[in-house]
Amino acid sequence: MAQMLLQIKAIRLQPEAPFTWASGMQSPIYCDNRVILSHVESRDLLRDHMTALIKEAFDGVEVIAGVATGGIALAALVAQALDLPMIYIRSKAKGHGRQNLIEGHMGQGAKVVVIEDLVSTGMSSLLAVDALVEADAQVMGMASIFTYGFAQSAQAMKAANVNLHCLCDYDHLLESAVEGSAIHADDLDALAAWRHDPQAWSDCQG
Fold first, then answer.
1. What is the CATH code of the structural domain delimited by 2-201?
2. N or C: which end of the chain has fewer CB within 10 A?
3. Rounded to an integer, what distance in angstroms lies between the CA atom of residue 19 and that of residue 17?
4. pLDDT tens across 63-79, in order?
């Protein structure tokens, strides 16, 4: 999975020429997993791996829930493969009509697995979990394509009692990047420093 993400440039690593995130923070990594949708073989691989993960980790799941916007397409692919209903959770309630926060039909007490494309701090993901719990769903856990593995997200998931499974993580990505010569081994210290304290790393770039 790490090799695929790097090969199609869904994830880019540039410690020498950092990216600027929407927040203004400098980062040596940029992740846009929506790129996967444009590559048929990669999309099929992702669907198959995520489907297998959910079968193994969340036996008895009844509904697949995508988190807007990055998790919606993957949730649809996985729900189709598993022959299950699919819903999605908006980042905020719709401003008109029924003002839905959750789109689609979900029975009361349904066993739901949440699909994310990326887990960063985990805050937006957990807001989706909160919305499902308020709608009387039984959230079995969450599955994501990739996680940076920040301590903050691990603590937040543990505090919320959310079981998170990811197809790829930061450590495996770096290992694959070195093996494939996408980065040099000398870059690993800088990349580790960023994961430990992204804001401090960003501040040093100025």
1. 3.40.50.2020
2. C
3. 7
4. 999 999 999 999 999 99
